[in-house]
């Protein structure tokens, strides 16, 4: 009764999306479905590159089955990303509380020392109810898009990581099976001993961890392993073969490193693969591109120099710094620039961008540009790597060359 649709979409090839709205209480859902939903999710989770958990900011809850669904991703924690959707439904103060509550709830379900990456935004076509965090939502959306678009580049590494996981799991299984085989009696009491060993499986795990220095995370889930062992004949298990264990250890210690080098060489010689289609096409075009008209991009389409509107205020400061021949020295400029309390590394970059002629001094236009760049940084925007043409002071712009 399990139904699935196959769609020709590059994004859907590498992403499994688990949406929380509509998930009923576990027992009702299991009865209505007629199959084990968590096992289906586990099957998909082992084969995809990214798992996205969606939560609505205005109705944050984790049902019992959604909790079980998340737990079915055990061992795939590095693939999980979280989206706090419809965050425009709450104000900034409420959003902080919702984010904290979400992290606390996920901490009880996902047992991993790493902090999950949570993307905050409004990922639907409805108008924003609360526009105070528009810039945050746009930046988070771009980060999520970049993460998804880069998945093809990491596909080979993911497959190699899956190979490592399977090899370590096979090694652990060999230790478990050989131990159970060794503990079985040769003639009488086999069934009773089998039940005893199954019940003592958690203790056997601990013993094997100590003897062979194996991480607890490499062992299969106890409950699932006990269920599988119920249908097995322990007397037919194979004994441990040290040479095979040595081969696996050699592969993990030496051959994996050479494979990783081959992957890196192949990636460097091939064009960068990116996910295309849907929201990834056409989102950066025109005046609705990310960051268009903001920060260092402000004034890109205007004929007038964008710094000119604030230049009178900057000029008042400039002439208090005792300019000589229309310029102030680096020492004088530094005294004013450090009042912004920006790090010296940032101020050094601003100086390099503002000193257009590279003479170690600033004229009134260069000083105004420096103040404008400081304002851009204080407003939370990134500085450009090189000075955009629209920010170059008018007196420092090269005249157009005309053909004779």
UniProtKB/TrEMBL annotation:
Residues of the Dynamin-type G domain: 1-152
Descriptive protein name: EHD4 protein
Originating gene: Ehd4
InterPro entries: DUF5600, EF-hand-dom_pair, EF_Hand_1_Ca_BS, EF_hand_dom, EH_dom, G_DYNAMIN_dom, P-loop_NTPase
Residues in EH domain copies: 310-398
Entry GO MF terms: ATP binding; calcium ion binding; GTP binding
Localization of this protein: Endosome membrane
Keyword Lipid metabolism belongs to the record: no
Organism name: Cettia cetti
Primary subcellular site in the record, as a coarse category: membrane
């Amino acid at each position: 009764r399990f139904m699935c649709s196959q769609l020709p979409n590059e994004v859907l090839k590498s992403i499994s999306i688990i949406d929380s709205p509509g998930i009923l209480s576990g027992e009702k859902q299991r009865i209505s479905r007629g199959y084990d939903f968590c096992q289906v999710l586990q099957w998909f989770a082992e084969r995809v590159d990214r798992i996205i958990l969606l939560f609505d900011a205005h109705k944050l809850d984790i049902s019992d089955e959604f909790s079980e669904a998340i737990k079915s991703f055990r061992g795939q924690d590095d693939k999980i990303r979280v989206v706090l959707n419809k965050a425009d439904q709450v104000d900034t103060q409420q959003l902080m509380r919702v984010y904290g509550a979400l992290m606390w709830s996920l901490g009880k379900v996902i047992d991993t020392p790493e902090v999950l990456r949570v993307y905050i935004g409004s990922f639907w076509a409805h108008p924003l109810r609360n526009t105070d965090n528009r810039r945050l939502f746009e930046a988070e959306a771009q980060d999520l898009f970049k993460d998804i678009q880069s998945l093809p580049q990491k596909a080979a590494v993911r497959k190699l990581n899956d190979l490592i996981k399977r090899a370590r799991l096979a090694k652990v299984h060999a230790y478990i099976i050989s131990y159970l085989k060794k503990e079985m009696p040769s003639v009488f009491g086999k069934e009773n001993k089998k039940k005893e060993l199954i019940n003592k499986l958690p203790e056997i795990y601990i013993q094997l961890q100590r003897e062979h220095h194996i991480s607890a995370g490499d062992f299969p889930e106890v409950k699932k392993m006990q269920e599988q062992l119920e249908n097995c004949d322990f007397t037919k298990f194979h004994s441990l073969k040290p040479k095979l264990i040595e081969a696996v250890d050699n592969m993990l210690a030496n051959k994996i490193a050479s494979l990783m080098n081959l992957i890196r060489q192949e990636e460097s010689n091939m064009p960068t693969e990116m996910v295309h289609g849907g929201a990834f096409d056409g989102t950066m075009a025109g005046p609705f591109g990310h960051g268009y008209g903001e920060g260092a991009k402000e004034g890109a389409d205007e004929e007038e120099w964008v710094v000119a509107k604030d230049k009178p205020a900057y000029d008042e400061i400039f002439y208090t710094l005792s300019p000589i021949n229309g310029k102030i020295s680096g020492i004088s400029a530094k005294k004013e620039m450090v009042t912004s309390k920006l790090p010296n590394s940032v101020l050094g970059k601003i100086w390099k961008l503002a000193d257009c002629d590279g003479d170690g001094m600033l004229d009134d236009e260069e000083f105004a540009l420096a103040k404008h760049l400081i304002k851009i940084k204080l407003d939370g925007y990134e500085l450009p790597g090189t000075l955009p043409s629209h920010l170059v002071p008018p007196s420092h712009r090269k005249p157009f060359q005309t053909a004779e």
